[in-house]
C-alpha cells in the first residue's frame, strides 16, 4: 500500500508550485487569489498527488489527481488543514465546494448554510448560522409593517452610502443595516462600523448589525472553481441572496436596498442575481447612486483620490465623521497604506 505524507508548499518553492499548478488544472480548478497556507500529499516517489489550501478560516482549492481518487487523499488533506486551523486558534471553519462534493464534507462534520447549482457553503458548527439568526432576532425590535435591509462594506463610508440609508430610512418603518465584518478592507471593521454608526445616527429607525462570517464580501469569496468572472459574481450574489433571504425571513425584512452604478457591469450583474433569488419574498429596491458633477459618489473614487494625495477633493464626497477620522493617526495610516498600494479599486 502506498504511503503518503503531507508537506507545506511555499509561495517561493518554484518546483512544487509548478506541480501544484498542473495538479489543480487537471482537477478542473485554478489557484485562488486569496490563500495564506497551501499543502500537498506526496507519494513515496516525491510526486504531488493532492492539495488543499486555507484563507483565514476557510478551506480552499482542494484537489486530487484523477488517477489517485478513491484512496482517501482528500480526507488526509482536509484533516491536516483542520489541524492547522486549530493550531492557529481557528475553530469555526467554512468551506465552499461544488455540489457533488458537499456529501463528503457533511460526512466530516460540516453543515450546509446555503446552496445553489454552482456551489455549496458549509460550516463545521451545527447550529452556527441558526445561532446567528437567533441572536439577530433577540437584539432587534419586532418587525414593523415596512421593514428593510441593507448590506454595506463602506470602505470608507461616503455621502453615497449615507444617501442610500436615507432613502431606506425615510421610506420604511425599520431598517436593518448589516456591516460586513471581515477585516479585509483598507479601513478596519471597527472603524467602518463606527463611521457608519455616526453617519446614520440621525435616523432612529436604523439598526446596525455585524454580518459575522455569513454575508460574504468580494475579498474573501472563492473564485477557484468558477469558469469566468461573470460566474464568480453570479455565484457570490446567489449565495449572498440565499443567506440574506433566511435573515430576512427571521427579521421580517421585505425589501433590500442596493445602489446602482450604470457603468459597472459587475454591479448590474450582482443586482440582477440578487433580484432573481430574493423576489418575490424580498423586493430588491435599486436606488440611483448619488452623483456630484455628473459622477457617481463611490468608495472606490474616494480611495483613488486619497491615493493620489487629493484629500480636499475626497472630503467633498464624505460625511463629517469620515472626514474627521482621516485627520486621526489611524486615518493617516490608512491614507499611507492606500498610497503604497498598487490598486485601490475593488468591485
Automatic annotation (TrEMBL):
Listed transmembrane segments: none
Keyword Ligase: yes
EC number assigned by the record: 6.2.1.22
Domain named N-acetyltransferase: residues: 1-139
Molecular-function GO terms, alphabetical: [citrate (pro-3S)-lyase] ligase activity; acyltransferase activity, transferring groups other than amino-acyl groups; ATP binding; lyase activity
Alphabetically ordered keywords of this record: ATP-binding, Ligase, Lyase, Nucleotide-binding
InterPro entries according to UniProt: Acyl_CoA_acyltransferase, Citrate_lyase_ligase, Citrate_lyase_ligase_C, Cyt_trans-like, GNAT_dom, Rossmann-like_a/b/a_fold
Role summary: Acetylation of prosthetic group (2-(5''-phosphoribosyl)-3'-dephosphocoenzyme-A) of the gamma subunit of citrate lyase.
Protein name (database record): [Citrate [pro-3S]-lyase] ligase
Lineage, top ranks: Bacteria, Bacillati, Bacillota, Bacilli, Lactobacillales
Amino acid at each position: 500500500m502506498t504511503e503518503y505524507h503531507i508537506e507545506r508548499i511555499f509561495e517561493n518553492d518554484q518546483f512544487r508550485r509548478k506541480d501544484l499548478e498542473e495538479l489543480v488544472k487537471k482537477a478542473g480548478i485554478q489557484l485562488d487569489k486569496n490563500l495564506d497556507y497551501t499543502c500537498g500529499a506526496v507519494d513515496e516517489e516525491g510526486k504531488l498527488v493532492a492539495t488543499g489550501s486555507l484563507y483565514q478560516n476557510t478551506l480552499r482549492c482542494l484537489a486530487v489527481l484523477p488517477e489517485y481518487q478513491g484512496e482517501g487523499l482528500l480526507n488526509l488533506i482536509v484533516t491536516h488543514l483542520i489541524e492547522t486551523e486549530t493550531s492557529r486558534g481557528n475553530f469555526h471553519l467554512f468551506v465552499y465546494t461544488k455540489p457533488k462534493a458537499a456529501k463528503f464534507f457533511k460526512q466530516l462534520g460540516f453543515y450546509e448554510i446555503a446552496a445553489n447549482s454552482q456551489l455549496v457553503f458549509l460550516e463545521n458548527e451545527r447550529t452556527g448560522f441558526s445561532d446567528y439568526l437567533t441572536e439577530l432576532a433577540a437584539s432587534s425590535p419586532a418587525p414593523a409593517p415596512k421593514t428593510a435591509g441593507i448590506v454595506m462594506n463602506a470602505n470608507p463610508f461616503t455621502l453615497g452610502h449615507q444617501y442610500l440609508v436615507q432613502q431606506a430610512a425615510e421610506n420604511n418603518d425599520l431598517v436593518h443595516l448589516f456591516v460586513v465584518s471581515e477585516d479585509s478592507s483598507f479601513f478596519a471593521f471597527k472603524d467602518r462600523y463606527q463611521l457608519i454608526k455616526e453617519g446614520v445616527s440621525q435616523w432612529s429607525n436604523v439598526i446596525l448589525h455585524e454580518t459575522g462570517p455569513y454575508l460574504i464580501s468580494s475579498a474573501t469569496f472563492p473564485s477557484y472553481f468558477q469558469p469566468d468572472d461573470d460566474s464568480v459574481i453570479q455565484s457570490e450574489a446567489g449565495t449572498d441572496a440565499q443567506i440574506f433571504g433566511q435573515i430576512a425571513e427571521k427579521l421580517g425584512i421585505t425589501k433590500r436596498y442596493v445602489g446602482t452604478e450604470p457603468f459597472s457591469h459587475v454591479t448590474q450583474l450582482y443586482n440582477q442575481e440578487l433580484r432573481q433569488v430574493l423576489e418575490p419574498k424580498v423586493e430588491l429596491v435599486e436606488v440611483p447612486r448619488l452623483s456630484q458633477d455628473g459622477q457617481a459618489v463611490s468608495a472606490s473614487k474616494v480611495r483613488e483620490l486619497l491615493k493620489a494625495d487629493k484629500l480636499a477633493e475626497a472630503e467633498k464626497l464624505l460625511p463629517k465623521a469620515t472626514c474627521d477620522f482621516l485627520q486621526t493617526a489611524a486615518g493617516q495610516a490608512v491614507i499611507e497604506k492606500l498610497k503604497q498600494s498598487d490598486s485601490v479599486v475593488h468591485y
